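**Backbone geometry record:**
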Amino acid sequence: MDDRTKKQDAPETQVGTTGHEWDGIRELNTPLPRWWLWLFYATIVWAVGYWIVYPSWPLLSSYSNGVLNWHSRAVVATDLAALQTARGPMMAKLAQASLQDIETTPELLDFARALGRRAFADNCAPCHGSGGGGAKGYPNLTDDDWLWGGTLAEISQTITHGARSGDDQGHQGSMPAFGRDGMLKRDDIVSVADYVRSLSGLSTTEGADLARGAKIFADNCAPCHGPQGKGSRSVGAPNLTDQIWLYGPDTKTIIDGVWNGHGGVMPAWGGKLDPVTIKALAVYVHTFGGGE
């Protein structure tokens, strides 16, 4: 230690300095409190003990198990088993009851909604929103407009097998890319977009030829959406005469949709969720208010 670090501050402090000085102000080399040092040493001893007792050190292909051989996964498995045991009687009743019986039995309905709420939050909310309100390209489950049907049985079918999911029992319909695939020209699509907007009472482009748009619609769109544009649930074609739009009602969005087509995918949850959970999920969605 050089002379500067041995230099004492004022006699009453009896504390050495670090040797740093700025504008006549010297930095004291104040020692740490002894209680703090002992606490610091105790944390080191605790950490070493933790490394020995619990799994902590990564190895080449696994990890150290610790002398207690304790694993958080085992605790989670135990908790889940206890939960399944507690739910067992109600799960059995839910499995045996029909969808209609569940909604008319208060005890089963409360349990199904609680179970369905958790399943919806974990699996469906990322697309449909926490309250089922949907988003652009993801249907609103709280209104009365359904692409594939809103009865309990239809909701259960859609959840189980999905849409365009690769499941043979799922919904298969999709909208062709009329422009990208060369079936319609740009001006044809503009005309049909104006006509589609007129079906729901929306304003059209100034000078729009609605008669031409109606002819194009009848030749290309009516096979799925129907001659009046009311839609068809057999192929998931939406009703174009209401004010509910999956992708948006503005002209540009409609033109882009006709040009590029639509074919969103809903997973088939039948391979991921057990039948009782799917039943509870169908009841929960049905009780949003838009079910039929």
Remarks:
- The first helix runs from residue 3 to 6.
- The radius of gyration is 34 Å.
- The longest strand covers residues 17-22.
- The CA atoms of residues 93 and 119 lie 18 Å apart.
